[in-house]
Amino acid sequence: MSGRVAGKVEGPDYRVFPGSPVRLAEIDPNETEGYTRKKEVLPELESLRKRIRRLHEKLYAENKRGLLIVLQAMDTGGKDGTIKHVFTEVNPQGCRVSSFKAPSAEERNHDFLWRYHKSAPAVGRIGIFNRSHYEDVLVVRVKNLVPEEVWRPRYRMIRDFEWTLTHNRISVLKFYLHISKDEQKRRLQSRLDDPDKRWKFSKNDLAERERWDSYQEAFEEAINETSTEHAPWHVVPANKKWYRNLVVARAIAGALERLDPKFPPAEEGLDSVVIPD
Amino acid sequence: MSGRVAGKVEGPDYRVFPGSPVRLAEIDPNETEGYTRKKEVLPELESLRKRIRRLHEKLYAENKRGLLIVLQAMDTGGKDGTIKHVFTEVNPQGCRVSSFKAPSAEERNHDFLWRYHKSAPAVGRIGIFNRSHYEDVLVVRVKNLVPEEVWRPRYRMIRDFEWTLTHNRISVLKFYLHISKDEQKRRLQSRLDDPDKRWKFSKNDLAERERWDSYQEAFEEAINETSTEHAPWHVVPANKKWYRNLVVARAIAGALERLDPKFPPAEEGLDSVVIPD
């Protein structure tokens, strides 16, 4: 995969960099580094969760830098599951998930980035976008909700927005969870078959599935147009949920380690302090 | 303790109800039901965390009722620690912590409830207030930031606000974490003594400690004035952190069990669905 550059995290680097565009059809969603079973990776995942938890505690105390995590995928691609499995041990104080549905009437009266900017994390925080400003070049394009002369300039607006965040102390990590069309069928079928999951199934999912190729095309272009040095996409092989969790957790732990947050220094003059009864 | 009423949760009921006011000086912050060591309660706490996690998952899926948790305490009383230990296994998707500091210039230009109302949870969510609208009858009163004719009518405004939330599908659970003045001294001293915690110590903590009695008086009146049938306070013995966590976790699990959230029903007509390749 031409777009990969060696990083500091262990394991393969799934980042996409400008000048090395990817073709999604050439990236294997089944890749697992040779691991064959979930239990082989669980110890590493557990240790990564603990590292993320410890680093987040320091990020919060330091209160100087923040992290925005963007999760995008085809339907059933695993955005919810990734949040649940990677972030479940993180202290909810200082970690906020924002899910974006169709915009409200008020939101539609503003520029498309307005509602995402409002939800961007502050310093000291991790913000997770479950869907994001990328929907405005994905579903909007596939369903012709706005004409190309409206959505195409958004690539630049998105690059600029993320550059602004990055240069204002908020690192941006973007993950495309890459599943195959066959795997989506299996996941939809299991929602239909399992009485406990059936409530998650919507007939609308089938209409979206018919647009699979258009969505793939839109994702591929969005990923290539908005992978920048400061905010590259990660294309995560996601047919195996446990491998997807591992790859995302590694990238987040790695990003936090590069930030290297520190507990703040103590106030001056505490040595002489006596606490009265 | 006259204000206690038997509830459905296991263990003593620390709720305060109207008509049975409490005197904080008569409530023992060291109470532990006879437990003497943390490890005696850890299995129950772990099981409560799992119950909260499962019930929260259903609350989120159901998307019909929400829960607002208010945490208040004297400095070092354990608000942050309670969030960390009780909520750490909860999925951050659908659980949001709001911490309130001194109001901004914009917030000061609105009524005092404005910023809290904006942060109230939606249905399907748990919202946690780390400090809350109660600061506007606590610190504001103790430090004479506004005159009594301004802060006293706020008791009624708070009761009305919480009644409105409760009758709009958001249950309100309020916890006062009750520590002794001696215990606060120990906790401040351990922040001074431990190099890893020293950054948490502020000389301003000592000025606040001098106002201990005024704060106790303000808390006691606020608890008695705003304990209602729909939103009673819990006065939680909190000198032992592990017992405090247990009491809070029991109350939250109990409240969620009374809500008894359900996964939503499946769409009609799914039996005939065939997923195309």
UniProtKB/TrEMBL annotation, chains A, B:
Residues 38-261 form the Polyphosphate kinase-2-related domain. Keywords: Kinase, Plasmid, Transferase. One of its GO terms (molecular function) is polyphosphate kinase activity. InterPro entries: P-loop_NTPase (IPR027417), Polyphosphate_phosphotransfera (IPR016898), PPK2-rel_1 (IPR022300), PPK2-related (IPR022488). GO terms for biological process: polyphosphate metabolic process. Coiled coil: none annotated. This is Polyphosphate kinase 2 family protein.
